[in-house]
TrEMBL record:
The species this protein was found in: Bifidobacterium asteroides
Membrane-spanning ranges: 29-47, 54-77, 111-132, 139-162
Source species taxonomy: Bacteria, Bacillati, Actinomycetota, Actinomycetes, Bifidobacteriales
Catalytic activity: ATP + protein L-histidine = ADP + protein N-phospho-L-histidine
Superkingdom of this protein's organism: Bacteria
Record protein name field: histidine kinase
Length: 411
């Protein structure tokens, strides 16, 4: 905006000087003003295209025959300097891809032809300086010197604008690179957090298994030994020893219950439902089936997670082995009272009969029934569909009853 404002100021000063030179505002002066204004606007619009300065060059040539137009030469020279400073970097940068130095670019005839109009303002100034005498000659000399200065100013403005644009491009590039680096850092942080979480979950699962395998077996053996001691004390009629052993048995039974509860809690906390579903889907597809997993369950007890993961593996394995399906969809829903799962492939109605799929279907149904749920499978228009529904509250009751049975056995 500052460059355009300076150019308009030069046009205004030229109009004032021309009106003073011609003792008033004449039609020739107005025509020169409009021609200079149109030539400058055309140059601004076309830059940095070659030929953008030919309008100003034509107006400069006409000033040779109309001396009053000499006062518009500084404005025309200023715009020519802007075009000169804009076109040289633009054309040079494009041509320098195939050259080693900028001089070889400037020597090209096409570029010289495009830059030649920038110096046409010299023709009327020198012509009037040579042909006229007196006041007109002095005005021609003044126009020549002023135009040289304004062209240098326009050239400086253009180089400043180019440098500022280059600086902005560098800043934009740096900001883009910084955003990319921040994105990569965030991705790495997420991956590290996920890896840490998976390590914690794996460690919890390992601890739960170690407690179950080692401490649980030792407590079971101790409870059996106490029970045997009670039988011996009872056969001998030693009531005091029998009462002591009975108290020890109750304490061991409570310890076993506490350990079982803690192990189940650790196992549930160490179960990443989403990861197990993703692993089951990717492993069972064997790379031959495109699986779309839509998981709406955030967390579930470890037995439910194992049951659903096993059924997913079995269903997708059957799809790969017994159908021509190319893709399958696994949908998991977390309803208020149920966990539900649907496995649907696109094998069409030409599916294998249930009997030809082996014992997998019966195994899926048995696993669902063990948790109080149901599993149904069969063909439809799209392909083969497996539907599993596991109730939430009955599962809790089933788990509590299972603990009660364990306590009875240990007693």
């Amino acid at each position: 905006m500052g460059r355009i404002a300076g150019w308009l100021v030069l046009l205004g000063l030229g109009t004032l000087c021309g009106s003073w030179y011609g003792s008033g505002v004449s039609g020739t002066l107005i025509a020169g003003l409009l021609a200079s204004l149109a030539a400058g606007a055309l140059c601004e619009w076309l830059l940095p295209a070659p030929g953008s300065m030919w309008g100003g060059a034509l107006v400069s040539l006409l000033a040779t025959f109309m001396p009053v137009w000499l006062f518009f030469l500084p404005a025309l020279a200023f715009e020519a300097g802007v075009g000169l400073g804009t076109m040289v970097p633009a054309t040079g940068s494009a041509d320098m891809k195939d050259t080693q130095a900028k001089d070889s670019v400037l020597a090209r005839p096409r570029l010289l032809l495009a830059l030649l109009p920038a110096f046409f303002w010299l023709i009327p100034a020198i012509t009037d300086l040579v042909l006229f005498r007196g006041l007109t000659q002095r005005y021609a000399l003044l126009a020549l010197l002023t135009s040289a200065l304004t062209q240098g100013g326009g050239l400086a403005c253009a180089h400043l604008a180019v440098a500022k644009g280059r600086e902005w491009r560098i800043e934009d590039t740096e900001r883009y690179r910084i955003r990319q680096l921040h994105g990569r850092i965030n991705d790495l942080d997420e991956e590290r957090a996920q890896a840490t979480r998976m390590a914690h979950l794996s460690e919890r699962t390992r601890i739960a298994r170690d407690i179950h395998d080692n401490v649980g077996h030792l407590l079971t053996r101790a409870m059996m030994q106490v029970q045997a001691g009670r039988v011996v004390a009872q056969s001998k009629g030693d009531q005091s020893t029998e009462r002591i052993l009975d108290d020890v048995g109750k304490t061991l039974n409570e310890a076993m219950t506490t350990i079982r509860r803690s192990v189940h809690d650790l196992e549930d906390e160490g179960t990443d439902f989403a990861s197990q579903m993703e692993d089951a889907s990717s492993e069972a597809s064997m790379g031959r089936l495109k699986v779309d997993l839509n998981n709406g369950i955030e967390t579930a007890p470890a037995p439910v997670c194992r049951c659903l993961a096993t059924i997913v593996r079995e269903a997708l394995t059957n799809t790969v082995r017994h159908s021509s399906a190319r893709s399958a969809q696994v949908i998991l829903r977390d309803l208020p009272a149920f966990w539900q799962m649907v496995v649907q492939d696109d094998g069409g109605i030409q599916q294998s009969q249930p009997d030809s799929r082996g014992m997998g279907l019966a195994d899926m149904e048995a696993r669902a029934r063990a948790l109080g749920g149901t599993a149904n499978s069969g063909p439809n228009r799209q392909g083969w569909k497996v539907f599993v529904s596991l109730p939430k509250q009955p599962w809790s009751d089933h788990s509590a009853a299972e603990h009660g049975e364990d306590r009875k056995v240990m007693a």
